[in-house]
Amino acid sequence: MDDDEGDRFSDAIRLLLLIAAVSDPLNEAEQQAAPKDAVAVLRAEGRLQKLDFWLRNPDYLADELLNDYEREREKEAINLV
Q: Which pTM does this prediction carry?
């Protein structure tokens, strides 16, 4: 496997994990209209793009968590950093 294939494989795995994390289960009406094997729906592509950016650039994610902590003073945010 050359470097390009490894990068593509890593990108695919990262995106699949992110899609699984932000997708919602189909409700009954959506199950009727969806393809037979569909199990979830992705409602917010923007959220997926933000999570992908943060995953690829963890320093920005840490900075955002620190900003949240400074605004809210919630210990949960600081524990994530």
A: 0.56
